[in-house]
Design a protein that fits this description.
The structure is a single chain. The chain is mostly helical. Among the domains are: 91 residues, no CATH class; 149 residues, no CATH class. The protein is 61% helix and 7% strand. It has 20 helices and five strands. The strands form two sheets. A three-stranded mixed beta sheet has the order 2-4-3, covered by helices on one side. It has a two-stranded antiparallel sheet with strand order 1-5. α1 packs antiparallel against α3, α6 runs antiparallel to α13 and α12 crosses α13. The model has no long low-confidence stretch (mean pLDDT 96).
Length: 398
């Protein structure tokens, strides 16, 4: 069996599974004939796809012609797809086992003592008086970006971050990102990579978009995050090295954990100097548009709240491993993540979506893993947006 055969089987397996799980195929710009074959006729059963995943994984592990690092990367992807197919076929897969097989790391509860310490840090720097949750919510919501200012703010931030990304790492000639505002989605933002170095980034306005988080959102989805990774890998891996496995991006695979981790890390890589410098950069774009933004307060609260978002993984484990109700999960998110009820409900909506139920680990574990690997070295970040790496490789090298 040739390298091309193994890669084609991987692409076909992902496309076939995508007929069962809406959104599982996040992006595809590979051979059209493979997509056409995968979409023809009745969808293959999950049980048949699970068997194909098992056989493909065995063939990859037995192969000795495919480059070892490449073979290991594809096998890790296939292991995730096989697990998804097994679960769809009705095989009971415990939640932690599902996450580990799909994303390459095992989820664990963040101790509430750590969350309490984060609360104490935030309480010490947040202006005003009264209960912490009320003050934190009021402060965050006061920084909401008016919808009519959101487009100009996104465009201004994207231009700045694109210039910084070009200076730090370079971008392919002809790359482009188009932004749009959407509603009725479980996520805050989404990068639809279209191939040919183009992305469409959707920003969800179901809830007000907050000024302190907007620079991170733009960096995450575009520069130097998802769009930058996709476009550089299209040039470097697909066009130059014919690695067609990179023409598909599949939910439920380790590829996602590293993609989300590097995208979350991107802003602090291209805007060096800590939270204060990032807040000052954001203020340059938001304040002229009339958006309330105090960079000193934003920076001190951001430093204090660092790590609080890991409690999102606790909410997922409560729902899927401990059998908590959605209402119990919402209450937990309100208490420990200091979220308003609408934002806590939006989080639970994401965590209970069939496509995204296990995905939160990509954010919770992806950022610290990538941060440890990069360790302040832009050259290591460039490896993340250039090479095929797995969570295991990052852990070993950190």
């Amino acid at each position: 069996m040739t390298d091309a055969d193994l890669v084609a089987r991987y692409l076909e397996l992902g496309l076939a599974l995508g007929r069962h799980v809406d959104g599982l195929v996040d992006a595809y710009y590979g051979p059209p004939d493979l997509a056409r074959r995968a979409g023809e006729g009745p969808a293959r059963s999950p049980a048949a796809l699970a068997e194909e995943g098992r056989r493909l994984l065995a063939d990859l592990e037995a192969d000795r012609d495919l480059d070892a690092a490449r073979r290991s990367w594809v096998a890790a992807q296939v292991r995730g797809l096989w697990t998804t197919a097994r679960r769809l076929a009705g095989e009971p897969v415990p939640y932690a086992d599902e996450v580990e097989a799909c994303y390459g790391v095992r989820p664990a509860m963040v101790p509430e003592d750590e969350l309490s310490e984060a609360h104490r840090r935030i309480d010490a720097v947040l202006p005003g008086g009264g209960p912490l949750a009320d003050r934190y919510t009021a402060w965050r919501e006061a920084s909401a970006v008016p919808v009519d200012a959101l487009g100009p703010a996104v465009a201004s931030l994207a231009e700045d971050l694109r210039a910084r990304t070009i200076e730090a790492f370079g971008l392919p000639e002809g790359e482009r990102v188009d932004f749009e505002l959407v509603t009725d989605q479980p996520w805050a933002g989404f990068n639809y990579y279209l191939g040919d170095l183009r992305s469409r980034v959707a920003i969800n306005v179901d809830l007000p978009v907050l000024g302190p988080t907007l620079p991170h959102l733009v960096a995450h989805e575009a520069y130097p995050g998802h769009h930058t990774e996709h476009s550089r890998k299209e040039i470097g891996l697909v066009r130059r090295r014919s690695r067609l496995e990179e023409t598909i991006f599949l939910v439920g695979t380790p590829q996602c954990l590293l993609a989300e981790g590097l995208a979350d890390l991107g802003l602090e890589v291209v805007v060096a100097g800590g939270a204060g410098e990032r807040a000052r950069m954001a203020a340059e774009h938001l304040v002229p548009l009339g958006i309330p933004f105090d960079p000193e307060v934003v920076a001190t609260v951001a430093d204090a709240a660092d790590g609080l978002g890991r409690a999102r993984g606790n909410v997922a484990l409560l729902l899927h491993a401990e059998g908590a109700s959605e209402e119990e999960a919402v209450a937990y998110a309100e208490r420990w993540l200091l979220l308003s009820r609408p934002r806590a409900q939006k989080l639970v909506q994401f965590l209970t979506d069939p496509t995204w139920r296990a995905y939160m680990t990509c954010y919770v574990e992806g950022l610290p893993l990538c941060r440890r690997f990069v360790a302040g070295d832009p050259g290591r970040f460039e490896r993340l947006i250039t090479e095929q790496l797995t969570p295991g490789q990052l852990s070993a090298a950190a």
